[in-house]
Amino acid sequence: MNDGYFVGWGTLSLINAGLAQGKNRSGLNWFLLSLLLGPIATLALLLCEKRPEHN
Q1: 34 in helix, strand or coil?
Q2: 3-state class of 50 per DSSP?
Q3: Is the separation of the CB atoms in 32 and 20 below 8 Å?
Q4: Is the distance from CB of 41 to CB of 30 less than 8 angstroms?
Q5: Do the domain assignments include residue 52?
Q6: What does the mean pLDDT of the chain come to?
């Protein structure tokens, strides 16, 4: 299989982890979920709302 495919999928997972942290969600959980679901996880993350911060 083409190595570029794996690099792109891994990059998408890292982007999703950063996006999740920006929405006050677990970056690690979303990273792992993105490794399995890829673009579907990205869509789910974009559609979910930001969690309120706990003080």
Answers
A1: helix
A2: coil
A3: no
A4: yes
A5: no
A6: 89
Domain that holds residue 34: 3-47
Decide if 55 is inside a domain: no
**Torsions phi, psi for 4 (to 5 deg):** -60, -30
- Identify the pLDDT of residue 1: 60
Residue 9: inside a domain, yes or no? Answer: yes
* CA 31 – CA 12 distance, rounded (Å): 9
Q: How many domains does the chain have?
A: 1
Q: Which amino acid is at 37?
A: L
Say if pTM beats, i.e. exceeds, 0.90.
Answer: no
pLDDT higher at 4 or 41:
41
Task: Examine residue 22 and state whether it is found in any structural domain, yes or no.
Answer: yes
Q: Which H or E run contains 11?
A: helix 3-22
Asked if 25 and 51 touch (Cβ cutoff 8 Å), the reply is yes
